[in-house]
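Z., the sequence and structure:
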Amino acid sequence: MKGDPVISRTDRLKEMLARGSLYRVVLAAFTIYGMACKFLLSLNLQLNSDLITPGFLAMEMVKNGNYLLKGIYLNALDSQLFNDVLLFHLVPQALSNYDPGVLRVTGFVIFMLVVAVFSYIVFIVTKDKTNTLVFAALMANIMPLSYSFFDAPMSHISAILFAGVFMILFLTWFDRLSCIDVKNPKGLAAVSLLLIALAILTFSNLIFAVFFIFPVAGYYLFLHGKKSYRSIIFAVMLLASGGAAVIFARFIVNRLGLACFNSIPVIPRGIEHIAFVNIPLYVNGLLLLICSNVYRGVAGFASFGVIEALTAVLFLVVLGLAVKNLLDGNAEHKRIALAFLLFSVVATFVAYVFTSLCVNIYTTRYLTFTAVLVFLLISAYFSYRNKAMAASVLLILVVFAAINFDTVKALSYHPNKGEREIIGYLGENNLTFGYSGYWDSIILTYLSGGEIVVRPVMAGDGGLKPVRLISSDEWYNEIPDRYFLLVNNARKDQVNDTRALVETVPSSAVYHYKGYTIYAFNNTTNINNKLLFKD
C-alpha cells in the first residue's frame, strides 16, 4: 500500500512528460528568468547620442516648446517619430522629467511587447503552447551582446513590433481585406486607414517597408492562392503607401517648415565589395544577433572553445530539423507565415548586402528583424516529439542562461558614469553652454536635463561646422559671451582638428578633466569671426 502513491506520482510524471506539460513549465521558467536578466541589462544600458534620441526629442518638444520639431534635422531613413518617440517615449519622458532610467525601461517594455507579439504569431500558426513558449524562451534569453542590438531605438525595435502587429492582421484578416470592394464606403475606409497607418510607420522608419510592406506585397503578387485583380491592386496600393511616405519625408516636410530630413543616399555596391565585405558582414551580423558567443570566437574577440562549438552545433541541429519539418508540413497558416518570412528575409538581404546600408558590424541593427524571424522559424516548426530537437533547445537555453547570469552578476549599475562626472564638472565651473562632437554633445545635453547645453559640431577648414543631425540651424545663432569647446581626448581626429583651431584663436582658460580638454572663450566677436562657423 505504501508504494501506491509513489507509483501514482511516477505515472503522473510520465504522463506529464508524454504531454509535454513539464517541458512547458521549464520553458516558462526560462522565459521569466530571461526577461528578468534583460530588465537588469536594460537598467545598465550605456546610453549614447544615438540611443537617447527619443528622450532628447521629447525634451525638445515639451520642455523647449518645439512641438512640431520645427527646424530639427532628423535622419530620413529612421526618424523614429511616430513609431517610437510619440507612441512610447514622449509621455513617460515628460512625466519623469526626462529621466534616462525611464528611457531604458521603456526600451525594455518595447522588447517585451515584441516577444509577446511574435509568441502570439507562433501560436496562430501552430495552435501549440509548447511552440509558443519555445519562441518566448529563446528570445527572452538571447545573449547580452545580442540584446544590446535590440534594446535601443536605433535597432528598429519598434519597427519590428509593428511589423509583428500587422503580421497578426495579415494572418487573420488580410485575405479578406485584399478582397474588399473599395467602391463600398466601409471597404474604402478600412483600406484607407490601413494604408495611412502603414505610410506613417514607413515615414517614421523606412526599414519598415523592408520588414513588412515589401514582403506582404510580394506575397499577394506572387504566392497568393486566390490571386485576383483586387489582390494585385491591394499589393500595388501597399507599395504606393510606402512610396508616398518616402516622398513626403524627403521632399514635402521640409517645405512645410517642420522637421528637416537628411536624405542619406543608399547606393548600390560593386560585386567585389558585396562578395568580400557585405556578405561576410551579413553572416557575422546574424551570428552576433543569434549566437554572440560564436561570433566573438569566430571574429577573434574571444577563444573559440567547447561552449562556442556546442552552441554552433546545437543551433545547426535545431535549424536543420526545423527546415525538415517545414518541408514536410503544409498547414495554411504556416505556409502564409513562411511566405512572409521568406520575402522579408530576402528583402532585408538584398537591401543590406547590395547597398551602402551595410557599413560595419554596427549596422547589424538592420538585421534584427531577420534574427527574430530565424527564432520564429525554429519555434513554428519545433516538434516536442523529436527528442533530439527538444533536448537541443533546452541545451541552447542553458548556454544562453549561463552567459546571461555571468554578465548580470558583473554589472555595476552605474551607466554613463563618465558623462555624469563631466556634467558635474562643467556645472561646478559655470560652463553651461558649449560645443563638442556629436557623440559627446547630445548625450551631455540630455543627461543634464538641458542644464548643460552642448551643440554638436565638427572641426575643420579653419573653423567649426554644425552637425546637422538631431540639431537645428537656429542653435548656432545662440552665441553667448562665455562658452566652451569640449574635446574628448579619446577621439584622436577630434583632438588634432581642434588643437589646430585653438592655436589660431586663444582661449580664456583651459580645463583638463578625466580624458576631456575644455577650452573656454569670452571674446565673442573674435571667435565669431575666426572660429564660428565655417559652413
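The first strand starts at residue 73 and ends at 75. Strands lie at 73-75, 260-262, 433-436, 453-460, 463-466, 483-488, 509-513, 516-521.

Let me know what you think.
H.
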